[in-house]
């Protein structure tokens, strides 16, 4: 999964360039008036977008993140300090050079800085009078460490334990397409499915058997929760909190939509979760009660993406 995140193939570079063009073509957000209110005679209150200031963004492994983050910072008028993982140092150095080479002199190349040494991070985290926001993009351990070491506000999201729940009324052909896309398309991504929850009435049905056969055919290793382990005879999972980031996932049977919601809110990471159902009441309950950044009805978790949402790119939180 690490190599998959680090690789910059031609296709990825093309889509990266397209996402940067999408950001460039967006309406300039800065000084855009959101609201204008006359709070008293001749006293007008204006609410506007403005830059945050200087951002320190610490990210792991994916060099394409550097380009996306830099483009968003330029577009939103923010200064930026970037610290990538040592495993992608050469890629990050070259990409930083490309980005800064196109910044006009009136703005200045130092708008976007690249921090190369891990030792510098501790010193930077003390600069709460200079840096306005820290965004750690990476493991749970990284986010926790950053939060503990600074007085600067931290915006962090660590794990990507995404769920797909197949309700008893689900169209199983649709379920098969969604689950295969969510797991197989790009398993190393944070929006890939890690846990498949299935309504207990679908156990041993032809539709579920067909889905499991397709996953196995694609090379996906399935681990079971207590119920799935007993009934399907698959290896037992050690923890429902596990993020595989590879061709493996956890499967468990649940009693109903409420049980699925409770499971997700207890074991999930509040990233992206999906319900597959033809029952609109069950779908509405799921969408309202699952406490995640993105909650989908009949759509792959892989759709949780800044470019897909029409934002051009994302910081990855």
Automatic annotation (TrEMBL):
Pathway: Amino-acid biosynthesis; L-proline biosynthesis; L-glutamate 5-semialdehyde from L-glutamate: step 2/2; Amino-acid biosynthesis; L-proline biosynthesis; L-glutamate 5-semialdehyde from L-glutamate: step 1/2
Entry keywords, A to Z: Amino-acid biosynthesis, ATP-binding, Kinase, Multifunctional enzyme, NADP, Nucleotide-binding, Oxidoreductase, Proline biosynthesis, Transferase
Organism annotation: Australopyrum retrofractum
Record-stated family: In the N-terminal section; belongs to the glutamate 5-kinase family. In the C-terminal section; belongs to the gamma-glutamyl phosphate reductase family.
GO biological process: L-proline biosynthetic process
PROSITE patterns tied to this protein: PROA (PS01223)
All residue ranges annotated as the Aldehyde dehydrogenase domain in the record: 11-203
Coiled-coil region list: none
GO molecular function, one term: glutamate-5-semialdehyde dehydrogenase activity
Name the UniProt record assigns to this protein: Aldehyde dehydrogenase domain-containing protein
Pfam family, one: Aldedh
Reaction it catalyzes: L-glutamate + ATP = L-glutamyl 5-phosphate + ADP; L-glutamate 5-semialdehyde + phosphate + NADP(+) = L-glutamyl 5-phosphate + NADPH + H(+)
Record InterPro entries: Ald_DH/histidinol_DH, Ald_DH_C, Ald_DH_N, Aldehyde_DH_dom, G-glutamylP_reductase_CS, GPR_dom
């Amino acid at each position: 999964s690490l190599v998959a995140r680090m690789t910059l193939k031609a296709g990825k570079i093309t889509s990266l360039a397209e996402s940067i063009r999408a950001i460039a073509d967006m309406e300039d957000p800065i000084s855009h008036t959101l609201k204008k209110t006359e709070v008293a005679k001749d006293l007008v209150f204006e609410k506007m977008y403005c830059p945050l200031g200087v951002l320190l963004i610490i990210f792991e492994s994916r060099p394409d993140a550097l380009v996306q983050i830099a483009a968003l910072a330029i577009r939103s008028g923010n200064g930026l300090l970037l610290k990538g993982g040592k495993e992608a140092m050469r890629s990050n150095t070259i990409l930083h050079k490309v980005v800064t080479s196109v910044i006009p002199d009136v703005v200045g190349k130092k708008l976007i800085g690249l921090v190369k040494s891990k030792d510098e991070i501790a010193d930077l985290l003390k600069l709460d009078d200079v840096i306005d926001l820290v965004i750690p993009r990476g493991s749970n351990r990284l986010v926790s460490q950053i939060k503990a070491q600074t007085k600067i506000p931290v915006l962090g999201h660590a794990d990507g334990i995404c769920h797909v729940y197949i309700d008893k009324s689900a169209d199983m052909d649709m379920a098969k397409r969604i689950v295969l896309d969510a797991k197989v398309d790009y398993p190393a991504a944070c929006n890939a499915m890690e846990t498949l929850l299935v309504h207990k009435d679908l156990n041993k049905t032809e539709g579920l058997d067909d889905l499991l056969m397709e996953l196995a055919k694609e090379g996906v290793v399935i681990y079971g929760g207590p119920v799935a382990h007993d009934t399907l005879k698959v290896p037992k999972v050690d923890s429902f909190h596990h993020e595989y980031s590879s061709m493996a996932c956890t499967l468990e049977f649940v009693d109903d939509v409420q049980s699925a919601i409770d499971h997700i809110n207890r074991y999930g990471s509040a990233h992206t979760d999906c319900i597959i159902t033809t029952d609109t009441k069950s779908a509405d309950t799921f969408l309202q009660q699952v406490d995640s950044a993105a909650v989908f009805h009949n759509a792959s978790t892989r759709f949780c993406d800044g470019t897909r949402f029409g934002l051009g790119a994302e910081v990855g939180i």
